[in-house]
């Protein structure tokens, strides 16, 4: 879908951007980790709810890869091994602290009801891209999560 011109035009229209500014296909995770902080690789990384230091093979190499970044931002509800390496940690809510819907891996939409209040600093993950942009001192177009 990311290479389909009609789909790209639709997404660009929703976000109010030029379709040519949308990214193309990405690279496999291990290839991305290998490229972090290199001359042609990403200089910053936003990690959402993933502990790549533990989940990727060769934790020492992953730590070194992450260490080459100019900026590592981690959005997570726990201080994971990856989060503890971050320049910025964005505390996020977990499923019981949010009201709304989610789509599971089967494509089913599930209603979620809030069972507990979130800690004061935690925010819902759709808000995090805006917080990450502010943390990186980059302007953003959104005042909160996606439309």
TrEMBL record:
Residues 114-131 have a biased composition (Basic and acidic residues). Residues 111-147 are annotated as: Disordered. This is Molybdopterin oxidoreductase domain-containing protein. InterPro entries: Mopterin_OxRdtase (IPR006656), Prok_molybdopt-oxidoreductase (IPR050123). The keyword Transcription does not apply. Residues 40-124 form the Molybdopterin oxidoreductase domain. Pfam families: Molybdopterin. It comes from Demequina litorisediminis. Residues 132-147 have a biased composition (Basic residues). Gene3D superfamilies: 3.40.50.740. Keywords: Iron, Iron-sulfur, Metal-binding.
């Amino acid at each position: 879908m990311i290479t389909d011109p009609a789909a790209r035009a639709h997404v660009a229209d929703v976000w109010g951007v030029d379709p040519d500014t949308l990214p193309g296909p990405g690279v496999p995770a291990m290839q991305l980790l290998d490229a972090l902080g290199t001359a042609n690789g990403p200089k910053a990384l936003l990690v959402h709810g993933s502990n790549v230091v533990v989940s990727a093979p060769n934790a020492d190499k992953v730590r070194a890869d992450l260490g080459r970044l100019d900026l590592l931002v981690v959005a997570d509800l726990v201080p994971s091994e990856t989060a503890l390496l971050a320049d910025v940690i964005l505390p996020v809510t977990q499923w019981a602290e949010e009201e709304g819907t989610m789509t599971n891996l089967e494509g089913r939409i599930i209603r979620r009801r809030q069972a507990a209040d979130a800690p004061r600093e935690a925010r819902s993950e759709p808000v995090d891209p805006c917080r990450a942009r502010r943390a990186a001192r980059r302007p953003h177009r959104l005042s909160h999560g996606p439309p």
